[in-house]
Design a protein that fits this description.
Blueprint lengths: L2 E5 L3 E2 L5 E8 L8 E8 L6 E7 L4 E3 L7 E6 L4 E6 L8 E13 L2 E10 L3 E5 L2
Parallel strand pairs: 2-11
Antiparallel strand pairs: 1-3, 3-8, 4-5, 4-9, 5-6, 7-8, 9-10, 9-11
Length: about 130
């Protein structure tokens, strides 16, 4: 059974960096051909895709967040992490990590199913 668990601080001050880690069990984050994604849901709004790191370490980001977002991984711990810089109260959300089934063709990343999700973690940006 694949399990994902988000961890990190629940409160971040404006202008600081939000850092979250997703610990994966039951699957390897280097296993072909999965990818590992961060998604968030602000209060009263829909899901927002933030970015992804693929089985080979390639990363793709939402254009609207690309300048502030970084996703990395620690294969020895089977973890992947999110950093979001210069946060504002608009970054307050429940943050989820998820496994993605995807196709890879001519350098393109083509997701087609998000099959396992973490339970989500609330992050509030406030002074």
């Amino acid at each position: 059974q694949v399990q994902l668990q988000e961890s990190g601080p629940g409160l971040v001050k404006p202008s600081q960096t939000l850092s979250l880690t997703c610990t994966v069990s039951g699957a390897s984050i280097t296993g072909s051909y999965y990818a590992w994604s961060w998604i968030r849901q602000p209060p009263g709004k829909g899901l927002e895709w933030m970015g992804v790191i693929t089985y080979d370490g390639s990363t793709y980001y939402s254009p609207s967040l690309k300048s502030r977002t970084s996703i990395s991984r620690d294969t020895s711990k089977n973890q992947f992490s999110l950093q979001l810089t210069s946060v504002t109260p608009e970054d307050t959300a429940v943050y989820y990590c998820a496994r993605v089934q995807a196709l890879y063709y001519s350098g393109s990343y083509l997701p087609y199913e998000y099959d396992y999700w973490g339970q989500g973690t609330q992050v509030t940006v406030s002074s």
